[in-house]
Amino acid sequence: MGKPLNVGIIGCGAIVAKYLETFPQLESVNLVAVADLDASRAQAVADSQPGVRALSVDELLSDDGVDAVLNLTIPAAHAEVALRAIAAGKHVYGEKPLAATTVEGAQVLEAARAAGVRVGCAPDTVLGTGIQTALKAIDDGLIGAPISATATMVTPGHERWHPNPDFYYVPGGGPLLDMGPYYVTALVTLLGPVSSVIGAASHTRTSRTIGSGARAGEVVPVTTDTHVTGVLVHESGALSTLIMSFDAVQTRSPNIEIHGETASLIVPDPNYFDGDVEICTLAERDAGFRVLPINAGYRDSGRGYGLADMAETPEGEQHRANGDLAYHVLDVMESLLRSASTGTSVAVESRAERPSAVPLTEVPQPVA
Predict the structure, then answer these.
(1) Domain housing 226
(2) Residue 27's domain is classified under what CATH number?
(3) pTM surpassing 0.90?
(4) CA 232/CA 230 separation, integer angstroms
């Protein structure tokens, strides 16, 4: 948008530390204020960042010195905070998901269009060298026409380490809505938008026992499915098989694997910005996989690069980690859960453009 964005953060929970690590690298954004319902948390962040003010949420939203709101609240509050920021004339960039439901997500996008402001949304991990190197391999024709993909996330459950895991095990939680945004965003980035899905889901336990923190030993109920699997039919014709589980113990499957007519790719964990991309070609099949050189994406990047990309994208052009993409990802996940409950294929009504590739870009290091 042509000039550094003055950013105010709403929500100073654990994830804020990841953004604060990255902000010194981002010349296009300038952190000026923070707010949280717990004023002490906002003050602690402000005290650690020279020149940053701790404000109430109302004060931050009414501050003319704040151009954009970085929304790091809990998922249930994403839409409410975004709508308030938009009503105040501010751009919004939020943590995933865009909203708790597609109904709320649509309200956010419609309000932003009416107000003439931008909406961005995590995950921006897809802008790092891992996913972008894989994208360049596909775009350069190294695997031929893409045929299929598999995406696998397996863990025995967050209650083993999270001191307050309740929200993972109620409707709106579960492995798909928690970790799915990373995987589905990566699949859409690599293979394009999804036109339909078919899914199935289950849960093996009706309760979970907290394993750490002040509530260790406390039992929490499970009221949502904790193992979700399905097939995403991309508009390109490629088929992606998705497995998201809080029930299974471990896997040796790659996080993401892409198969084409002439080669297969192993793609690194989409929860991170980097990682090796490996290729096995038909011509060199007996030699197995080899690592591709890093040749695309923001090198050594971190959370906040999607916000910077939004700030740097000229008016009239679509930034990469945009609201339409985040809405499509949310729509795909909701459709998959609806398919699992009905036992039928579900058409995905939304559409989103496959984001443009990121050329290899060195990250400027902060001056000591």
Answers:
(1) 126-297+328-347
(2) 3.40.50.720
(3) yes
(4) 7
